[in-house]
Specification:
It is built from 7 helices and 8 strands. With 255 residues, the chain is an alpha+beta fold.
Length: 255
């Protein structure tokens, strides 16, 4: 069944799948209604194949389709220009991440470590990053967080604690990515080498022969405690490599 908007400058064709599901733009834009609402929601994927969701605020399917397609076109443009599709504070994404984790735990499909993620997000991440825009968190903010966390703990955190905090942070970024509040290129990959946080931005591309030694080094670090090797001897060169990487002094691959 095809439905077209009327009285509008742009004609939108909609295929009604069932009373609560419809497709526009040949299926690229999906409209749906939740059981507890008559208003249509919309979702669509961009080039990164991540779902983006938006509320059309319309009960009328035709108006909802037009609003959803406008949002889709706007999102495609912003994505291609590496501009965040929406700007949200960290605490907005963090609260949604906590909600999703708790739902999975309640449904008994979540891992036991999800409880730790919830605790970390509420006790450490939101108090420190809460007022930051999700797309503004980078190397300096992570460094400042490390100092703040150490003061809060009263000691240097164990490696396992740091790993849990990183995983919890990634859960928040996943929520922001899914909703288009940040683009993937804005999120840095953080490694802890030589006692320092080093963030490598994902939009920088270098030859794999320069990355493989860093991956090997991270593996070495996990077993460092079992060997009589000074960590600084192993990681000094990697620190220099990554610092050069961050300043784009390494030769990038062809785009």
């Amino acid at each position: 069944m095809a439905v077209a908007t009327t009285g509008c400058a742009v004609k939108v064709e909609v295929k009604l799948v069932n009373e609560n599901l419809a497709h526009a733009r040949g299926g690229e834009v999906v409209l749906y209604r939740r059981p507890d609402s008559q208003r249509w929601q919309a979702r669509f994927k961009l080039k990164d194949m991540q779902w983006r969701r938006t509320a059309t605020k319309h009960v009328n399917l035709q108006y909802a389709a037009q609003t959803a397609c406008e949002a889709y076109d706007r999102a495609r443009f912003l994505f291609d220009e590496n501009i965040p599709i929406a700007s949200k504070r960290f605490d907005a994404a963090a609260n949604l991440a906590v909600e999703e984790l708790n739902k999975q735990l309640a449904a008994k499909v979540g891992k036991s470590v999800y409880k730790d993620y919830v605790t970390v997000i509420n006790k450490y991440l939101i108090p420190f990053f809460g007022r930051y825009n999700i797309n503004s968190i980078g190397y300096e903010e992570m460094q400042a967080f490390g100092v703040w966390r150490e003061k809060k703990l009263g000691r240097k955190p164990a490696a396992s604690t740091v790993t849990t905090h990183i995983s919890a942070m990634n859960r928040v970024f996943d929520v922001a990515l899914e909703r288009g509040w940040v683009v993937r290129a804005q999120i840095g990959v953080c490694y802890k080498l030589g006692g320092k946080w080093l963030c490598v931005k994902k939009e920088c591309k270098v030859e794999m022969k320069k990355i493989i030694p860093l991956i090997a080094l991270m593996f070495i670090q996990t077993t460092m405690r079992y060997a009589h090797i000074e960590q600084e001897q192993v990681s000094r060169k990697a620190v220099n490599v990554i610092n050069n990487f961050n300043t784009k002094q390494l030769t990038p691959t062809d785009q």
